[in-house]
């Protein structure tokens, strides 16, 4: 119930489904690296395959290409939570040109070299 007072993310519910291996301090560190504190949280699990949809906001990489060891570890923990998962798709609902342009405003997208076993897909 880390978000029960909505201090970490005011647009998320009080209770989140997150990997048990992550600490509250690590989640708070991830939140500082994500726009509006929107850390990746479980949204849906397929009843048969156990494939998941995890939702978040853009990372704050900016033009300098900032990275967050906490964010990178957390994304790996999400993938590791499903023993059948060997690859993660990070789906960005924006066109790639918009995601690239957002770097100038301090946003951006996950660089594939920072997230092993992940492939980014733009819509």
TrEMBL record:
EC number: 3.1.3.16, 3.1.3.41, 3.1.3.48, 3.1.3.64
GO cellular component: cytoplasm; membrane
GO molecular function: phosphatidylinositol-3,5-bisphosphate 3-phosphatase activity; phosphatidylinositol-3-phosphate phosphatase activity; protein serine/threonine phosphatase activity; protein tyrosine phosphatase activity
Biological process (GO), any one: phosphatidylinositol dephosphorylation
InterPro entries membership: Myotubularin, Myotubularin-like_Pase_dom, Prot-tyrosine_phosphatase-like
Entry keywords, A to Z: Hydrolase
Annotated Myotubularin phosphatase domain residues: 1-123
Binding site for substrate: 102-105
PANTHER family: MYOTUBULARIN-RELATED, PHOSPHATIDYLINOSITOL-3,5-BISPHOSPHATE 3-PHOSPHATASE
Family per record: Belongs to the protein-tyrosine phosphatase family. Non-receptor class myotubularin subfamily.
Protein name: Myotubularin-related protein 2 isoform x1
Organism: Triatoma infestans (Assassin bug)
């Amino acid at each position: 119930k880390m978000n029960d007072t909505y201090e970490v993310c005011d647009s998320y519910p009080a209770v989140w489904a997150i990997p048990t291996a992550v600490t509250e301090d690590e989640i708070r560190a991830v939140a500082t690296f994500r726009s509006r504190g929107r850390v990746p949280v479980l949204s849906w699990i397929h009843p048969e395959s156990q494939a998941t949809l995890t939702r978040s906001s853009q990372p704050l990489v900016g033009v300098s290409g900032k990275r967050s060891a906490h964010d990178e570890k957390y994304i790996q923990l999400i993938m590791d939570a499903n023993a059948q998962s060997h690859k993660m798709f990070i789906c960005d609902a924006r066109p790639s040109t918009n995601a690239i342009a957002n770097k100038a405003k301090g946003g951006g997208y996950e660089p594939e070299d920072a997230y092993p076993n992940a492939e980014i897909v733009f819509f």
